[in-house]
Amino acid sequence: MATASQLPLKGIFQGIKLVSAILVGILIISLLIGQSPAILISGLGGHGSGTHAGV
């Protein structure tokens, strides 16, 4: 069983901070442009995947 000193808490906290910063950024952008955050998140899904027509 892992003790508290063996767990990578620093990395876990950095990951949590990164995810929360991204979520806050999406919320701020959605408030500024007047769109739902769900629309912004769903719009990120198709970019960069190479599934565009004509590719």
Automatic annotation (TrEMBL):
GO terms for biological process: cellular response to osmotic stress. The keyword Transcription does not apply. One of its GO terms (cellular component) is plasma membrane. The chain crosses the membrane at residues 12-33. It comes from the Bacteria. InterPro entries: YbdG (IPR030192). The keyword Transferase does not apply. Keywords: Membrane, Transmembrane, Transmembrane helix. GO terms for molecular function: mechanosensitive monoatomic ion channel activity. This is MscS mechanosensitive ion channel.
